[in-house]
Specification:
The structure holds two protein chains of two kinds. Chain A is mostly beta strands. In chain A, 0% of the residues lie in helices and 45% in strands. Chain A has a single domain, classed as Immunoglobulin-like (Sandwich). In chain A, strand 6 and strand 7 form a beta hairpin. The N and C termini of chain A lie far apart (33 Å). By secondary structure, chain B is α/β, with parallel strands linked by helices. Chain B has a single domain, classed as Purple Acid Phosphatase, chain A, domain 2, CATH 3.60.21. Helices cover 24% and strands 21% of the residues of chain B. Chain B is built from seven helices and twelve strands. In chain B, a hairpin with a 2-residue loop joins strand 9 and strand 10. Chain B is globular, with a radius of gyration of 18 Å. Chain B starts with a helix and ends in a 5-residue tail after the last strand. About 3% of the residues of chain B have low confidence. The chains are: A mainly beta, B alpha/beta. Chains A and B meet through strand 9 and strand 10 of A and loops of B.
């Protein structure tokens, strides 16, 4: 596996989890940058049935990226690019957040994935 | 003073909230254990150093709670602090200053037997280095009147893990105990997935619960979520305590996916407090207010 490229394949487990077929033609990519204490952007939109890849970078320190509703998490290490792919299977708003304690403000470091039909 | 008498006294003195009784030690037979009944008090989430609108009185709340506990008609055998003694700061010097200060304030307690545990605000930025200088080990055990207490550290790892080493230590400790021994586990974060999208969980907490599951008489007391919460994982009861700084939003079924900010400050401070825990035939606890009504 490419050291700079980490791809999380999700397996079925809950209503929001599904198998992400890595189809370059249909997978949507969104770049998300982590920096104390924000993700930019902090709102991401996706469509049901279309795989979504988060391309994650950090510019200051190790952060975490966790989406419990999709069963994924990864560290985001400065100087490296981390990629995680999900398959939205239902509409709704889902949280992502930093799960590596990073200072005063850590608890507010998060964002929302909005999945539309 | 008998258990019921003591609770009645607390009510008459305007010091008792709701009494919570659960079959926490369902397998315990009154005559089967050594040692007598006793009680201890849980403080949690004092967040010394916090300054903000969620509690404009934060500088005095801990001192008020200490005065309330000092006024209890029967002093507890010991007191536990289940983490977040200090509010986090990225300045190591300031972190130590806050720990020194909170240690001095806690010195005002009449009870001298005090057991500490870290929260992520104390320990996650330096893996518990400053905490250990002021408060000692981050995980340990002790025994009191026939009850085995286990303090677990699920915060020094910034990823909120107990870690394999601590889990092996826990397994080795539990192996020394019979399945019907009375065991109280104390942690900062919930060991179970209370609300994962609000980060109210421990990454490998399920492994600790698996290790505890063969033991019939286990109860867990923790903090972190700044409110009462009562939950069962099988026969193991988990009880979250109020904080001494500000309450957090409640994780009800209609709660938003991201954790909302704390609710507006309530000057009555009724949503803050400590907890008086009675260890008898059952475990009973009373929520104590910050200040006497």
């Amino acid at each position: 596996m490419n050291r700079r490229s980490f791809i999380a394949l999700l397996i079925a487990g809950s209503a929001t989890r599904g198998v992400a077929r890595l189809d370059a033609a249909t997978t949507k990519e969104v770049e998300v940058m982590a920096e104390k204490f924000d993700f930019t952007p902090d709102t991401v939109k996706a469509k049901v049935g279309q795989p979504l890849t988060f391309v994650l970078t950090s510019i200051d320190r190790i952060h975490g990226f966790k989406m419990p509703d999709f069963g994924i998490r990864t560290d985001i290490v400065p100087g490296e690019e981390r990629r995680v792919t999900i398959m939205p299977t239902k509409t709704g708003s889902f949280a992502f957040f930093c799960d590596v304690f990073c200072g005063d403000g850590h608890e507010e470091m998060g964002g929302t994935l909005i999945v539309e039909a | 003073m008998l258990q019921a008498d003591r609770r009645d006294f607390l009510k008459l003195a305007g010091m008792a909230g709701v009494t919570f009784t659960a079959g926490l030690f369902p397998s315990r037979h009154a005559s089967a254990q050594a040692g007598g009944d006793f009680h201890f008090v849980q403080f949690s989430d004092t967040h010394w150093g916090y300054k903000g609108p969620a509690n404009p009185d934060a500088e005095h709340t801990l001192e008020k709670a200490i005065a309330t506990v000092n006024a209890l008609p029967q002093q507890p055998d010991f007191i536990v602090f289940t983490g977040d003694l200090t509010h986090t700061t990225e300045d190591p010097k300031e972190r130590r200053a806050r720990m020194k200060h909170v240690r001095e304030i806690i010195g005002g307690l009449k009870v001298r037997d005090i057991r500490f545990m870290p929260g992520e605000h104390d320990a996650a930025l330096d893996k518990g280095e400053a905490y250990r200088e002021f408060f000692g080990d981050t995980h340990y055990t002790f025994d009191h009147k026939g009850v085995h207490f286990i303090a677990l550290d699920n915060v020094s790892d910034p990823g909120a893990k107990l870690g394999d080493e601590q889990l092996a230590w826990l397994a080795a400790d539990l192996k020394q105990h019979k399945s019907d021994d009375r065991i109280v586990v104390m942690t900062h974060r919930p060991l179970f997935d209370l609300r994962p999208s609000w980060d109210w969980t421990t990454a490998d907490g399920a492994k600790a619960i698996d290790l505890l599951m063969p033991y019939q008489n286990v109860v867990v007391f923790y903090g972190h979520i700044h409110q009462e919460n009562h939950h069962m994982t099988g026969h193991i009861a988990h009880h979250a305590a109020k904080s001494l700084v500000f309450p957090q939003a409640t994780p009800g079924p209609n709660a938003p996916p991201r954790r909302p900010p704390p609710p507006p400050y309530d000057a009555s401070q009724k949503n803050l407090g400590t907890r008086d825990i009675e260890m008898g035939k059952t475990v009973t606890f009373v929520e104590l207010p910050v200040a006497k009504a």
